[in-house]
Amino acid sequence: MKLGIVGLPNVGKSSLFNALTGAGAPSENYPFCTIDPNVGVVAVPDKRIDFLVNLYHPAKVTPAVVEFVDIAGLVKGASRGEGLGNKFLSHIREVDAILHVVRCFEDDNVTHVDGSINSVRDAETINFELLFADMETVEKRLQRSGKMAKSGDKKYRFECDTLEKVKAQLESGVFAAGMDLSEEERAIVSELFLLTDKPMLYAANVSEKDAAAPDSTTLPQVAQLCALAKKQGAEVMVVCARLEEELSQLPPEERSAFLSELGIAQSSLDALIQKSYKLLNLISFLTAGEKEVRAWTIKRGTKAPAAAGKIHSDFERGFIRAEIVAFEDLKACGDMATARARGLVRQEGKDYVMQDGDVTLFKFNV
Question: What is the pTM of this model?
Fold first, then answer.
């Protein structure tokens, strides 16, 4: 599952990517420093893993991961090919969700493509390009479906009606993800892989000074971005990409002291990674023992046999049952024996829908 980092040039995308992945991608002060997308796999911070490690002292620890893609800066007119726009839009089409970085800091040494800071204008520049690209996609499909509908086929007539409805809403600025559509209409839209149908999380990139503010969401540029995001049904995370990049280069034991000097309580990077993971509609179930403690990534709503198949196909094929204890119950008990004695370890069958944090042992027979 991939999450694409997008935004205008010089908003801090590559700095944030560097902080997330430690990959050291270039982050120079000129547009299109990034042309080919950089890709990095990032461990999802999870205190549940830490607890299980202390409980079992395993030989191996494997956290859940999320894949970030640093996509080059888009500019106004990208949907018409401006600034290598078509290439960059194709990179966005390949990801599952979008982390939209918006510049909310003033810095005379870092060029802004429009000459001034305006978080809403900048966010809408990107959003409009996504909308324009989707309009073109819908129009092309509409032309094809319109020809097929002339035969009188009800399927294509319905498809045309749906596409007209979607096109009208795109033209009014509504993202596909936020459209009120029936299940049948949504099925047609999903076939189009629209850019605005992808979940989006805004990262408001602030200065080091503003990162130390008691409530950075009240900063004018951030507050305005929050108002825009609310209309979209999206969230905003406040982050200082430059600070996080500097932190990522320090030894872990020096990071707290560095933050204290700046008057900042804690890094916002862990929360950003966790929100990105959830944005992809992912959850983790856990397996634990002396050999390995591991977080397994599944889509929310996955049933127990399919979750077992993430470990090995034989587990799904020969699934008998899942022995499960909720992580919070295990933590409260202190160990598995106590959880079992208190009747908190459940036996679940094939119809059980896995929950985030389930500590699981699968029973199977092949």
Answer: 0.85
